[in-house]
Design a protein that fits this description.
Elements (H helix, E strand, L loop, with lengths): L1 H6 L5 E4 L9 E4 L5 H11 L7 E3 L3 H5 L5 E5 L10 E4 L2 H6 L6 E2 L18 E5 L8 H11 L2 E5 L5 H8 L7 E3 L5 H10 L2 E4 L9 H8 L4 E4 L4 H4 L7 E2 L2 H9 L7 H11 L2 H18 L9 H9 L9
Parallel strand pairs: 1-2, 3-4, 4-5, 5-6, 7-8, 7-10, 8-9, 10-11, 11-12
EC number: 2.4.-.-
Keywords: Glycosyltransferase, Transferase
Protein name: Glycosyltransferase
Length: 314
């Protein structure tokens, strides 16, 4: 979002963790990991002429600043009393947001992803190693089809890993640990198919569009926002592991690499996402779809941070 907004000529002030790099008009790196101290840091450094705040974290939106502020949820609902709620899928907006707010899909920068039309003969699971992500189901699909499976991601549940994953590791099924950067892009681009076996209500499913951007078909269950993201490619949706295995066995029935890439580019690129948010920004500012409150945490914190005069003229 930052890069695309700047490319279009907008001024962007980015608040982020130390070590972050961007082409923002100015990047402010947090001096602390404590949310209260981060809020104070933002209050001290936020330019006075900002038109709108887009908060992905929640600490600013919950403080209710006297500036139109979006609170974007990348997971479930937003319980706090905030001005404007935005969710990453219509599914989450309906189920957890009770239809109060807006939905804007995630977008990725297409040029960041390697595209390959010729694939290698392995399946890929990419994500956290927890029960809800269904790694054990990806293993089941691999065994049903006799295909190699590469598992990549952070190990977040050791008990789950030791009982449901580790016993199956070997020549056919490999765990390569957390991946990022070029290695992640190569794994996505070379896979014959990505298995998205989540069993919980995924808010969106970023791996879905990362795979498609790489020209790789991704098979997913109809859970959460998955059906919404893959709405234009219904052949990629599955009900069971048996159905998923059947589709793995007949790859010619799946969308081609170029169709996958085109689908991601026309629906889930950073350009599409930025277009959507700019329309929403303008709507919020023009129609004043927000309420400015006086006695808010933001105003109370700001008052405490104001320098006080000692009356001595120094």
């Amino acid at each position: 979002m930052t890069e695309e907004l700047v490319r279009r000529g907008h001024e962007v002030f980015l608040f982020a963790k130390k070590g972050s790099t961007s082409n923002a008009t100015q990047t402010f790196e947090y001096e602390s990991d404590d949310p209260k101290e981060q809020l104070d840091f933002i209050i001290k450094n936020l330019p006075s002429d900002v038109d709108i705040i887009h908060d992905h974290y929640g600490i600013v939106a919950k403080a209710n600043p006297p500036i139109p502020t979006i609170c974007q949820s990348h997971s479930k609902g937003i319980k706090s009393n905030v001005q404007i709620r935005v969710y990453v899928s219509k599914f989450i907006l309906r189920k957890y947001g009770k239809r109060k707010g807006y939905a804007v899909h995630n977008g990725i920068r297409m040029e960041d992803y390697t595209f390959k039309s010729t694939k290698q003969k392995y399946l890929l699971f990419l994500g956290r190693l927890i029960k809800e992500k269904g790694v054990h189901l990806a293993i089941k699909v691999a065994k049903k089809t006799g295909r190699r499976l590469i598992i990549a991601g952070t190990l977040n549940d050791k008990k789950y890993y030791n009982t449901k994953i580790k016993p199956h590791l070997g020549k056919q099924i490999r765990y390569v640990g957390p991946v990022g950067g070029d290695l992640k892009h190569e794994l996505l681009a070379n896979a014959s198919c990505v298995l998205f076996t989540s069993t919980w209500d995924e808010p969106f499913g970023l791996v879905l569009i990362e795979a498609l951007a790489s020209g790789t078909p991704v098979l997913g269950f109809r859970k959460g926002g998955v059906a919404e993201v893959l709405r234009g490619m219904p052949r990629l949706l599955c009900k069971t592991t048996s159905g998923m295995a059947m589709k793995v066995r007949y790859p010619k029935r799946l969308p081609t690499a170029r169709k996958c890439r085109r689908y991601a580019r026309t629906r889930y690129s950073d350009i599409i996402m930025t277009d959507s948010f700019l329309k929403l920004y303008q709507k919020i500012i023009n129609k004043k779809l927000y309420k400015i409150k006086k006695n808010t945490l933001w105003n109370r914190r700001k008052a405490k941070l104001q320098p006080t005069s000692n009356g001595g003229g120094n």
